[in-house]
Amino acid sequence: MALSGTDGASAAACSARLPALPDPGTDAVLASGLARELSYAFGGPFHFLLPDAFDANLHAMRRALAEAGVAGFVYYAKKANKAAVWVERCAALGAGVDVASLGELREALGHGVPGEHLMVTGSAKGHELLRLAVRQGALIAVDALDELDAVLGLVSGGGAERVTRPARVLLRALPPGQPHSRFGLDEAELATAMERCARAGEAALRMEGFSFHLSGYDIAARAELAASLAELCLKARASGLRADRVSVGGGLPISYVGADDWQAFLAARHDGHFHAGKSFADGDFYPYHSPLAGADALRALLAHRTDGRRLADVLRDLDVRLLLEPGRALLDRAGGTVFRVQGVKERPGYRLLTVDGTSLSLSEQWFASEYLPDPVLVPGLGDGLAEAGTGGTGAGIGGAEVATGGADETYPASVGAATCLESDMLTWRKIPFPRRPRVGDLLVYPNTAGYQMDSNESPFHDLPLPPKVVVDRTELPRPRWRLDRHFT
Fold this sequence. Notes:
Elements: E1 2-3, H1 24-32, H2 34-42, E2 46-49, H3 51-67, E3 72-77, H4 84-93, E4 96-99, H5 102-110, E5 118-120, H6 127-136, E6 139-142, H7 145-156, E7 167-173, H8 187-200, E8 205-212, H9 219-238, E9 245-247, H10 259-268, H11 295-303, E10 305-306, E11 309-310, H12 311-317, E12 321-324, E13 335-347, E14 350-355, E15 376-378, E16 394-395, E17 401-402, E18 409-416, E19 425-433, E20 442-445, E21 468-473, E22 480-483
Parallel strand pairs: 1-18, 2-21, 3-4, 3-12, 4-5, 5-6, 6-7, 7-8, 8-9, 9-12, 14-18
Antiparallel strand pairs: 2-13, 10-11, 13-14, 13-20, 15-20, 16-17, 18-19, 21-22
């Protein structure tokens, strides 16, 4: 990988490429010229959303459950992306939504998701959230004994506050392998909670099973805890409780980049590959390649053996339904983020780009980390290229063409934000672009729908939040798009 002579630095200063995995939906957006058109129309950065990918990911998870013969239900974890289109798809396809605030609950109801298809998670839920959840028949993951008492107060008390339908709850267990987690009931608290649920009776409260919050992507740990809670369902039933389901939460990884590219990046990486010698520990990066991702990770979860029995067999034998709360895994390849280059500075061996937005719209910095998949460099209209963007010889995400330099040339650049903060960098890494970035070019960051677009956004400097564009149809020559219908 050689740098062009005008850059005057060795290839060692340039990091390995990390192209995103093929994504036909994003390719279609790039090939149509829609990215340039919308960048001009909005006068700033924007996100595009691809609901067809969401639908495909949901169907794949349902197939994995059916293949294993396991009864299950999928709740979309709304915190992963606040766009309304995902909730609309859940309503249309009969999926559930996992919410953690009064606003999220109202949004889901307002977009047509029935209350019985909602799960309310989060810790220390407020009174108004609990009251609306009980009234709508949502399933509540109870996180503490005082929270259980608050739910019981709503269905057992008197006066105008009393809710006349029984509350539906799961008891959230503290994972034995993560005893310092702030989520969940320990063993003694869990026993006390089951006693209180049994004493309340089904006319007031239906204890439908257990859930847990497990950090990380360890499939074995998740499967083993699910199996143990399925066994606990038997003990709960002996006390007269319904206890027929277990929620494993999310934690299904996805893959952003290929295995070879990821390993090459990790093997060659050093601080010189990042602007200002920025240092990252290996553990600070999301695992951007996973050999088992999405529905395949779910298959591995169901196939994991504990004491010689697959989790799928345990669930079937005990007549326990598996509940899932994926966020990122449902949003894999379901959207991207577009910025316009508005400044280029020369630095020894690389360039420093400034775009028309902030890293708060590319939210990996919330983990003091870096979003690593390569952005696609789309030539600006000032280059005199065709509107469809096919005037060059290089490839985009998986085939959409963009203009490039020579076959052996790369043009490394890091990407900063349009703010006065030294640390506000979209990409610290010196990305080996296939041609020289220029003012007016677009940077299209791929696969940002899962947690990247809005989890950390802020109108800092009074910069407007990037709008979200729903691309309902990606067929050429002209995609069909609309603005997202988020209420707030």
